[in-house]
């Protein structure tokens, strides 16, 4: 078994969903004292926001839950990410199709939908970008639940 695990969260622009997932999961990992065993990052399939901070609404919603996203910067997924990360977790089917195209051409870790680790009937994390504040709260709820399932899965893998 591996002594550490690398997790990559992927959405479209890396300013709403995937940085929120990175922040929520990082907080869970920290609370469990597993920061030396789990490396976490996020990225987007598009390059529109490269180098930019997460959306201010994501930062605010996460902040209300005690999660700081202010130090994160958007980046675009690279083919070598599929070799570097043990989990490549995407937010929706469109992201999955985009990352699977990279995977088919380059191999590495097969991407999967992040909410497969949750208990919700929802299979995709909806993009809150064009909606109101409630959308950001819903995204965080889905991410929190799936993050707990993911951490349980990783604990089993590291045991």
UniProtKB/TrEMBL annotation:
Catalytic class of the enzyme: hydrolase
Gene: yfkJ
Organism expressing this protein natively: Marinobacter litoralis
Family according to the record: Belongs to the low molecular weight phosphotyrosine protein phosphatase family.
InterPro entries according to UniProt: LMW_PTPase, Ptyr_pPase, Ptyr_pPase_sf, Tyr_phospatase_low_mol_wt
Alphabetically ordered keywords of this record: Hydrolase, Protein phosphatase
One Pfam family in the UniProt entry: LMWPc
Enzyme Commission code: 3.1.3.48
Positions of the catalytic residues: 11 (nucleophile), 17, 127 (proton donor)
Protein name: protein-tyrosine-phosphatase
Start and end residues of each Phosphotyrosine protein phosphatase I domain: 5-153
GO molecular function: protein tyrosine phosphatase activity
């Amino acid at each position: 078994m591996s002594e550490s695990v690398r997790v990559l969260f992927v959405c479209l622009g890396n300013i709403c969903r995937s940085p929120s997932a990175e922040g929520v999961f990082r907080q869970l990992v920290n609370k469990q004292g597993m920061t030396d065993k789990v490396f976490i990052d996020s990225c987007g399939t598009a390059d529109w926001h490269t180098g930019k901070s997460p959306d201010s609404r994501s930062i605010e919603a996460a902040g209300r839950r005690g999660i700081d996203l202010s130090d994160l910067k958007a980046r675009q997924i690279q083919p070598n990410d599929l070799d570097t990360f043990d989990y490549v977790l995407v937010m929706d089917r469109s992201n999955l199709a985009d990352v699977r195209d990279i995977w088919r051409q380059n191999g590495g870790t097969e991407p999967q939908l992040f909410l497969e680790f949750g208990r919700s009937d929802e299979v995709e994390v909806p993009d809150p970008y064009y909606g109101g504040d409630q959308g950001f709260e819903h995204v965080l709820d889905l991410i929190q639940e799936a993050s707990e399932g993911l951490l349980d899965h990783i604990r089993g893998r590291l045991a």
